[in-house]
Design a protein that fits this description.
This protein is mostly helical. The protein has a domain of 73 residues. Helix content is 61%, strand content 0%. The chain has four helices and no strands. The protein is elongated.
Length: 139
């Protein structure tokens, strides 16, 4: 009789321990879900605030890019005014086609194709080392 009471007590203790462990696990998961819910809500509010700020900044950029505002700022703060006289320079076609190398202007610095010299220093691939170019387009 004593042995059956001891077994019954151990079973009762074992059931109580299992129920306690299940309750602890359930409470842990529930508290984790609740804290994640609060964090998600906080991040959603932060996203809305940042979207609102981005919209305001975009409106401010649009306002700053307005040409009439730029012109007013140039006149009032910088003391600028529109040009009164427009100067046009006509370049003959024969002179426009000349490069600085062929130009007779001695004040210009000579053109140095340093990059061409650098490319010529690079090793060339051996014949046949490059893959052959396809003769027909692939479909």
């Amino acid at each position: 009789m004593k042995a059956s009471r001891i077994r019954l007590a151990w079973r009762f203790i074992l059931v109580a321990i299992l129920i306690s462990l299940g309750a602890i696990i359930w409470l842990s998961q529930t508290s984790t879900l609740v804290s994640l819910g609060y964090e998600t809500e906080k991040l959603d509010k932060q996203e809305v605030a940042l979207d609102r700020e981005a919209t305001q900044l975009q409106a401010q950029i649009t306002q700053y890019e307005d040409l009439t505002r730029i012109e007013d700022e140039a006149r009032t703060k910088l003391g600028m005014a529109p040009a009164k006289n427009k100067v046009y320079v006509k370049i003959p076609a024969s002179q426009a086609d000349q490069t600085p190398e062929t130009s007779s202007n001695s004040r210009l610095a000579p053109v140095n194709d340093w990059w061409r010299e650098l490319v010529e220093m690079l090793p060339r691939p051996f014949k046949g080392s490059a893959p052959p170019e396809p003769t027909q387009p692939r479909k």
